[in-house]
Amino acid sequence: MKVLVVGSGGREHALVWKLSQSRLVSKIFTAPGNPGTAIHGENVPIKADDIHGLRDFALKEGVDLTVVGPELPLTLGITDLFEKAGLMVFGPSKKASVIEGSKVFCKELMERYGIPTAGFRVFEEPDEAYTYIRTVGGAMVVKADGLAGGKGAIVCRSEDEAMGAVRLIMEEKAFGEAGRRVVIEEFLDGEEASFIAFTDGRTVVPLASSQDHKPVYDGDRGPNTGGMGAYSPAPVVTDTLRDEILHRIMIPAVRAMEGEGRPYRGILYAGIMITKDGPKVLEFNCRFGDPETQPLVVRLRDDLLDVMVRTVEGRLQGTELEWDERASVCVVMASKGYPGDYEKGKVIEGLERADTLPDVVVFHAGTSLRDGKVVTSGGRVLGVTGLGGTIEEAIENTYRAVGMIHWDGAYYRRDIGMKAIRKSAGGN
Ligand SMILES: Nc1ncnc2c1ncn2[C@@H]1O[C@H](COP(=O)(O)OP(=O)(O)O)[C@@H](O)[C@H]1O
Ligand SMILES: [Mg+2]
Question: Residue ranges per domain, the chain?
């Protein structure tokens, strides 16, 4: 089969890497891709949100399956457009992707169907939001309704911060139309985990558990980023908790979407806060996580293409995924300054040596080629991913590889995976 993967980040390199191992795959295109995806196939210079251009390319090349990485093309309706053209595509429809595209929709859906989530209010007028904030006070979370590139959710420790967040989103319009409405949520205390599953609209097939590291600095300090690292499995998600999340959150969400006339097919990703009152949903995403996909694909034993085709064709019933027993860790190497301003075009050294270490894969994200050299071209540059018999070994292997890679201004967290060690050492 000819496969087209849409996107250009670490998640897409990880998907391409895994798909390239499928016996069913004859050729992989990535649009627009990065130097990492080019190792396994051909990069095509079409942007991820140019959904018409992508459709024309898929028709011309006779692509058998298109796998959509990021949320934007999904919310723009790439799936509907491809299906209309008779093309097979992995990812939810426009109507279904709204679960990520609108936080207001997502919260109201959860409320209607009794899916556990933080208490919330929706506002269209800043003045009403300010009055509400003054009434409740304390810590709360202010979120822009629409897509904001991972920057639209602002965790506020105080009333003043919350007022500032509403001003930024609604009055200064920092995220444009996405901030026409805001959700103000109750602050939830606990540990976060990512719960990712394939669903064909009826059957839900969970992936292994994983955990992201959002804040930029060690010890979870500093502003949130797209994700500075991840590991799998996440010991915080015990078997009991996994069942609870599956039966109280994931399956009800898929049924709810069906009930709303928005049948859901593809990846459903729940960001979960494990609170003292049980797991609660922070948000749903309509695609694989980045960077969680990196540590997940290196542990997945099944043929990814086969699972994707079964998802699209509604044949997931009876599917159970098999996982490497070992643990995996992905350390994101970023440009100094990220998530703020940073310099680009720095030559990266040591990539090949790191990549030849056993049980290590270096996934590219914000890289490009210049005069035959790999240079930095984004905030999150690489996702160095390693396996180990224990989480400690996985951490050691991964950081050994990280230590071999250099560029002027490389930055990474030094504590990725440490939470998992504390968890397994100290129990729950
Ligand atoms: N109700 C909440 N209580 C505490 N922290 C939250 C809450 N909602 C979101 N967060 C924090 O903010 C991050 C981003 O929020 P999320 O809803 O996932 O938005 P997005 O990923 O679209 O930016 C979460 O990963 C979590 O760390
Ligand atoms: Mg999130």
Answer: 2-95, 125-180, 191-312, 327-426
